[in-house]
Amino acid sequence: QVQLAESGGGLVQPGGSLRLSCAVSGSFFRFYAMAWYRQAPEKQRELVAAISSGGSANYADSTKGRFTISRDNAKNTVYLQMNSLKPEDTAVYYCNAKPPHGLYDYWGQGSQVTVSS
Q1: Ranges of H-type helices in 15-100
Q2: pLDDT tens profile 11-34
Q3: Residues 6+ apart with CB under 8 A from 40
Q4: Closest among 87, 47, 84 to 67, alpha carbons compared
């Protein structure tokens, strides 16, 4: 069973930065497309950023220019660097791994990010 372990969430002031990390177990990380989603209270889960197995990234309009997704295949880890954080970025952030077969994917347990003064 593939496991995803997230870390790096917390409380930050508006305008601040945080970096989330997601370590993925197993030997096939380099083949997975990876993504970060978030879910704010009483809202649907939404895509924040995604990165293909080849390293191509795309972003939600609300995070473009502020967030950067990256991956380190040697460490089986995907990152989300979040800069210029706003109160509306407050949410639980989830790491997602999509194997090439497309039959199912894997989720992390979630990491709380709170942006508040």
Answers
A1: none
A2: 999 999 999 999 999 999 999 999
A3: 88, 90, 91, 92
A4: 84
